[in-house]
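Um, can you check?
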Amino acid sequence: MTGNGGARAFIAEQAGRSFASDWVTIDQEMINRFAEATRDFEFIHIDPERAAETFLGGTIAHGFLVLSLLPHLRDQAHLPIPPGVTVGLNYGLDKVRFTAPVRSGKAVRGVFTIVDTVERQRNQFQQVLDIVIEQEGEDRPAMIARWLVHFTIAEGA
C-alpha cells in the first residue's frame, strides 16, 4: 500500500466487524408500491385473499423488494466509512439467496459483516460485505448475500 496509512490502517481494523440495522416493517402498502414500480403483480404479493389459500397463508414481499432495502439497511447499520472517501459505487452482488419468505407485516433488519477490503489500484478499494437479512421472531433469515462495493479515497488520506 502507498501514501498516508491513516485510511488504510482504519480499513484494516474493520475486517470481521459486524453491524446491524434497525428493524424495518414490510407492510402491504410497501409491497403494493413495489409491485407498481416494478410491474410485478404476482398474486402472492398483492392479493391477500388468494395468497391466503396457498401454503404461504397470505401475501409475501417480493424477494427483490427485500434486496432493494440493502442501501437503507446499510445506512441504518452505520457501517464505518474510511476517512477520505470521495466516492463509493455498488459493484454487485454474489451468492444472493432468498432463504425464507417475508410475510406482509413482518420486520426485517440487515446484519452486515465486513469480510475484507482490498486495494485494487492506488487509492481504489473493493470491500466485501456478507449480508444476512433477519426476520424478527424467526430463526431462518429471509436473505443472504455477498455485496461488493468499490470506493476511492483522496490522495494522502
